[in-house]
Write a structure and sequence with these properties.
The termini are far apart. This protein is about 50% helix and about 20% strand. α1 (about 15-60) runs antiparallel to α2 (about 70-100) and α2 (about 70-100) runs parallel beside α6. The protein has six helices and seven strands; from the N terminus they run ααβαββαββααββ. The chain is an alpha+beta fold. The structure holds adenosine-5'-diphosphate. Adenosine-5'-diphosphate (ADP) binds near residues 167, 210, 216, 217 and 227. Keywords: ATP-binding, Cell membrane, Kinase, Membrane, Nucleotide-binding, Phosphoprotein, Transferase, Two-component regulatory system. It catalyses: ATP + protein L-histidine = ADP + protein N-phospho-L-histidine.
Length: about 260
């Protein structure tokens, strides 16, 4: 692509700025391509349940009209598809909100212990229904970070839900919290929260891409389990907003560990 450049710089001192504007256009093009991909993905993800809904409406109008059993079955499927669209729209809104706020660091004092306790409580039933024990371990007492309590709750809900959904075969999910006196990258005290499952693990080739929007190891399985493909993208952005770190480790056949490190304070 030919990119119009500003008038030729005079003198060596101005050269770097002309160069920078050229690079910026490259970045803009890349951002534009990503946006197009994203819109295409969203449209596809919305169209799938919509097509199903429209098909069932048609069937209800015609053949199933006088068959109460079939009607009930179709209505249940329609309900499930509508719920899927609702989750997708909810996740899209969360993602766009976090992205727009990413430069604004949240300042509320949040007690991580309380956040984790409420996540375990909220997901207790879901885990139990899947035959998974949720185990909280590690530091007790107040563990304070600066953050957005709702967003932090969402981070750990997404991770624990995934661990139950995809790693539940191991029968247990551990939520471990530890204090780090000096975290080298964050250059200060921090808390590390690990969400550990003993499921089948993830092939290493997928690890670097898991936080991309709509990236799934197995699309069919994710859809079947009600996933939107946005959970880990949301986690990544929220952790970034909190100036924290996010790391995924996994060993096939043994399980996975999703770690969030947040600056203490
Ligand atoms: P989804 O809505 O599909 O769950 P996520 O962004 O939350 O989307 O996760 C992306 C993909 O990462 C999932 O589809 C799944 O393949 C994989 N994944 C996430 N957590 C785990 C886990 N604990 N064990 C195995 N695979 C996982």
């Amino acid at each position: 692509t030919l990119v119009p450049l500003p008038p030729a710089p005079e003198g060596p001192l101005q050269r770097p700025s002309a160069l920078a504007s050229f690079e910026d256009v490259g970045a803009l093009e890349e951002a534009e391509a990503m946006r197009r991909d994203f819109v295409a993905n969203v449209s596809h993800e919305l169209r799938t349940p919509l097509t199903a809904l429209m098909g069932f409406i048609e069937t209800l109008r015609s053949s199933a009209r006088d068959d109460p059993a079939a009607r009930d079955r179709f209505l249940s499927i329609m309900e499930r598809e509508a719920a899927r669209m609702n989750r997708l729209v909810g996740d899209l809104l969360s993602l766009s909100r976090v992205e727009s706020e990413e430069r604004v660091r949240p300042t509320t004092q949040v007690d991580l212990s309380l956040v984790l306790r409420s996540v375990v409580q909220n997901l207790g039933q879901v885990a139990e229904d899947s035959g998974v024990a949720l185990i909280r371990e590690g530091e007790e007492g107040a563990l304070t970070v600066r953050g957005d309590p709702d967003q932090l709750t969402q981070v750990f809900s997404n991770l624990v839900e995934n661990a139950v959904k995809y790693g539940g075969q191991g029968g247990e999910v551990r939520i471990r919290i530890g204090a780090i006196a000096h975290e080298p990258v964050l250059r200060g005290a921090a808390y590390k929260i690990d969400v550990i499952d003993k499921g089948e693990g993830i092939d290493p080739q997928h690890l670097p891409r898991l936080t991309e929007r709509f990236y799934r190891v197995d699309t069919h399985r994710s859809r079947e389990k009600g996933g939107t493909g946005l959970g880990l993208a949301i986690v990544k952005h929220i952790v970034a907003r909190h100036r924290g770190r996010f790391r995924i480790q996994s060993e096939q056949g043994k399980g996975s560990c999703f770690s969030v490190i947040l600056p203490a304070g």
